[in-house]
Amino acid sequence: MNRIEREKQTVQRLIELYCRHHLKVETMPEEYQHLAEFACHRLDHCKYGENKTACKNCPTHFYASKEREQIREIMRWAYQRMILYSPKDAIAHTFYNVKHWLQSLSFRTGVIVLLCCIPFYVLSFAQMLLPISVAAKGILWTVLFGLAKTCQYGGLTILGVEGYKQLKNKFKRNKQQA
Length: 178
Hints:
By secondary structure, the chain is mainly α. It has helices at 3-22, 30-44, 65-85, 87-103, 107-126, 134-177.
């Protein structure tokens, strides 16, 4: 599912949540159905396509003033409650937002984050030499190894496929020169 389809699905669900739990109606009233259709239509015609940001951060507002106020009110109410009424959707939405934000960071940032995993890997195993209890060693290993994996996957997410290929080619060139 592409970004536009996910955004349309999220807007639809937010409006449904708002109608069901705030307005206390089972079926969506006509004006909210119109708003959902309007939002989906506008998302289909978004000039940024797959590279779009969240609508509130977008430089081009394509909602008319009436619809913009309605959607703001709905999002203000529904986003805060989405985790309660639709936790799977809330977690998926947060995951995609974080992933999109990470991918917008620079190649250099990706390399730095990726290199941060090395000290955490070293520390996660080096702490086994410390004269502390086995339970403390297990906790330290779990925390440090988790940080190493977080840095590794975060760095790879920032780099993306193209950045990973670029980094791999750089290491190959260095190896051939040596």
